[in-house]
Amino acid sequence: MALALEEGEPPVGAVVFYEGKLLSWGRNTREASQDPTAHAEILALRRAASRRRTWRLDGCTVYVTLEPCVMCAGALIASRVDRVVFGAADPRFGAWGSLYDLGKDGRLPHRCLVRRGIRSEECQALIDQFFSAVRARGRRLRGLTEATERV
Fold it and tell me: Which residue in 41, 69, 120, 130 has the fewest CB atoms around it within 10 Å?
């Protein structure tokens, strides 16, 4: 949490497990990298694919702090992970039940088993604490501030 606050990154993390063992991890680095795709899930999937030497991540389970957004849910589906487990719902961007529900779209070529709300109160508390701390410091996320100053 301290690292997330220091770096101006929301405390969202993702881990990928394969055959019961940790395969990879990721944390949001969008603000630091100024890369709109640098979400925890995307970075964890990239590492997992690199380690397995295939983009097909069948047999994998992904655990993530916050409900994946549309981009991340699409990447999870495209990578063929078997299962996704997330904590806090995301009413602004969530793609597995909160805003959209990609899992119910029968046109997609793959479906992940999704388990929602695991340790949701703990995950939501971390996110709430982060944004409260950011507001208390009277500053925006570092990347947003820098981008605004350039305009």
Answer: 120
Cross-strand partners of 24: 16
Nearest CA to 69 among 92, 46, 103, 51? 92
Where are the domains positioned within the chain? 2-146
Tokens of 20: 């019961």
Q: Give the predicted TM-score (pTM) of the model.
A: 0.86
DSSP string for 73-91: HHHHHHTT-SEEEEEE--T
Domain 2-146 has CATH 3.40.140.10: yes
Rounded CA gap, 132 and 97, in Å?
A: 25
The active-site residue out of 41, 67, 121, 146 is: 41
User: What's the burial of 119, exposed, middle or buried (CB within 10 Å: 0-12/13-18/19+)?
Assistant: middle
CA–CA separation, 105 and 111 (whole Å): 9
9 is catalytic: no
The Cα 151–Cα 131 span in angstroms is 24
CA dihedral defined by 72, 15, 6, 137, rounded to 10 degrees?
Answer: 60
